[in-house]
Each structure stands twice: as C-alpha cells, then as structure tokens.
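User: My collaborator sent over this chain with a note saying "see what the structure looks like." That's all I know about it. Can you take a look?
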Amino acid sequence: MGSNIKLKDINKRISLMAEKEFTGRKIVFGDGNVNSKILLIGEAPGANEEKEGRPFVGKAGKNLTEFMESIKIDRSELYITNVVKIRPYRISPKTGRAINRAPDNNEKALFTPFLYEEIEAVNPEIVVTLGNVPLQAVLNDKSVSIGEYHGKLINFMGRNIFPLYHPAAVIYNRALKEIYTNDLKELREYVKRMGVDINE
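Assistant: Without extra context I'll predict from the sequence alone. Here is the result:
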C-alpha cells in the first residue's frame, strides 16, 4: 500500500474521531511530499492554519520556510504535520475572541496514536520535532524538554529523531536565533550523511 493511500485511510479515521470528540471543528491534516525523507512535526494548528487548512502557514510557517531554505531544503521537499490536528484555543476574557493555547492532555492523547501511524506511512529517514509537544509525543515521554535535546540526533525505536525549537520560539525569543542557526547546520550535516538528496 502506497504512502498516499495509507495517509488517506489515517485521515479518514482522524475525521471520524474528531467528528465525535470535537464536533464542528476544522481538521488540519499533514501536508507535503508523502515520499519525503524528512518529516517535520509541530504542535497544533493556529488560526491561520485553521483558516487555510494547511500546517505552518502563519508567521511561524514563514519562519520555518526561511529556516529550511537557509540550509538549502525547499518546503516542497518536506512532509509537515502536527501532533494535534485541530486548533486548541481559549476565549480571551478581554476581547471575547478565540486565542491559541497549548494542546491539553486529552487532545494529545486522542491524536498521538494517529501521529505514530502517520510517521510509519511516510517512513522518513529523519523526523524533525518542532518544540516540546512533538518531542514528548514522539519519544512517548512527558519529562523530556527541547532545551535538553535540541540539535542532537536521537535514535528511538529505529527512527532518527532530530529535535528543533519551534519556529515561533524564535519570534518570541530573539536570543534563540543563533542556537537555531547552529542546530539547522547540524541538521543539514545529518541529512547529507544519511544520503538524502538536498540542494548544494
């Protein structure tokens, strides 16, 4: 069974679960090259992603695209998804409008099994986690932190995991820019070492 067919089946089952658990909410599925050797995993969609139905299309997505291009990897070569496929939000007491929040334990528990299936379906050479939520989900360990593991290749259950800070973290903390740049250089070296074709 090809990656595309497997992913369609997974997405269908995600839809059935979400209809039951999160009635009326828009689902943002993974997107990109289903045969990619590099799979990127974020936390959850925000308002822009919910609106467009694609992961990483807001400001963090712009950052991510620029970061990848800095190491000569085009977004079109990647498969990008999130742990949670609906936008987690709360209502602001000041404005009465929906604002983003981190996914809660229930949301993570419901979506994470599908994430594992998604990783198997794409079967990448390297899984890049963006921030704490995907790192903890992929390693199945709530105690791990991105501050400890960023920029280091981890072999877990036969998979190569490379944790990066979430691209949004660099927006809020400019001091991370240099760390992020160095981690990206490390990622490029690992990708090249694995024989994954990237532009020179």
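A starting point for your reply to your collaborator: The mean pLDDT is 93.
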